[in-house]
Predict the 3D structure of the following.
Amino acid sequence: MTNLIDIKGVTHAYKTENGPLPVLENLNISVPEGDFCAVVGPSGCGKSTLTRLIAGLMKPDEGEVWLHGERVTSPRSTVGMAFQNPVLLEWRTILDNVLLPLEIVPNSMSKRQKQDRARDLLALVGLEGFEDKRPSELSGGMRQRASLCRSIVHKPDVLIMDEPFGALDAFTREDLWQTMHRLRAEEPFTGVLITHDLRESVYLADEVIVLSGRPATTQHVENVKLSGRTDLEVIYTQEATDILHRLRHQIEVAQGRAPEVAQ
Amino acid sequence: MKHWKKVATPTLAIIAFLAFWEFIVWFNNWPNYKMASPSDLIPAYGKYWNLFLIYGWQTLWRTVVGLIVAVIFGTLIGMIMGFSRAMRDALYPLLVGFNAIPKATVVPVIALIFIGQHDFNTILIAFMISFFPISVAVSIGLSTLEPEYRDILRSLGASKWTIFWKIALPKTLPEFFGALKVSVTLAFIGTNLMEIVEPHGRGLGHLFDSGKINADYPLMFAVLIALAFLGIVLYYIVVALEKIFAGWAERPQG
Ligand SMILES: Nc1ncnc2c1ncn2[C@@H]1O[C@H](COP(=O)(O)OP(=O)(O)O)[C@@H](O)[C@H]1O
Ligand SMILES: [Mg+2]
């Protein structure tokens, strides 16, 4: 299997008034095509910076980002992004919000095809019947669902999500996890999920990468293959509990609260 | 709110205001030179209705043209300040300083520079007094755009122009219309300032002036009410435009 995302020795620092702020240091991440990779790490360690580098919104000081065998130097339309804030456009209906990327990315779809595609996605995430509503008429969870539809409507190779469910209550969040599995079954994207919820990372991802504190580097890679199950109960199996335990420990190391050797 | 209520409520408020006005003039037994009452205005309108139409139109079109120039210029300045941090730092003190100058002191200067060009002078003052709120609103609207909005479009390879057209501009419209409502009344003040301070025989300001010279107090009050009326009309035109272009920003009241 080839890697869809290859991050090779990326180092990046922000220029601030107090001199350079090193954020990423010699970071290496590879994600095979079709996989889902979760990235966890202490707050402020550089996770959002990583998403901006993958999306080509910024160039790293050193190192290279490769997508699909091509070096990333600028934004590319084969990427979809979703944030904690759903950033829907208030003056558009939900349907028109989802259609936004198709107005920008060059494509050969007819108006009818675009609408059908957007409606299908909305139905898949459970927003059938809300196509003509305004974002302000929807709950936070529904808005995030619409935002997910928008991020994949143009069939990107890579879906980058920066704490997409971070602002939702626990039950809504679990609903959206299941929605995410449903989307994955239908759409062939490779995913990068930034999260601070370890259970979320174990439930959704094929591998979990723990970043060290700032400047962030890869501290630990955990393979999570939970026998292909996608029901929520899988979180409570012994297998998942063991993984959660290991991740918990790695986070504490990353935060500098536990020595690296202890296990 | 039901439709008829939307019209009835402000109408009732105006009637109540006029009744109150009539009452205090009658109650205090004020003579006309102190304060005319609404019932004195009706003869004034009856006597000079053709002048009101002619002068009212002159005032109105010059105000509207000044306002249009203010919208174009104010939006451009606002865009420059909204997109560039450096330009914002450079232009803000200049704009604030310019806005702080009493326009009444500018009127004679303008009248002297562009001597005889009455329409131009009047439009210029209307413009100068009313563009400031617009540029501030546009610059704030653009500079407070959350970076995620920009990133969503940029990550798809959208150009700066596309980002402006699809996101920044529509997102700024509610602030823009808020400022435009202020600018409408300011523009009227500008027009009349020129018409009154540098009389050149045009506009409602001139009618006010001739009322003053002839000690025709009801006429003066009638002009003020006519100005208020024009202001209200223009204000509601802006409200209607706002409903069309930025109606989405209105939240249902619960
Ligand atoms: N544009 C920027 N300029 C300067 N510093 C920044 C900028 N963006 C982020 N930072 C700093 O870089 C660090 C990492 O930020 P970020 O990638 O957002 O962290 P995370 O998403 O892991 O919380 C933080 O300390 C943050 O304050
Ligand atoms: Mg972040």
Notes: The first strand of chain A starts at residue 3 and ends at 16. The mean pLDDT of chain A is 90. The two ends of chain A are 32 Å apart (CA to CA).
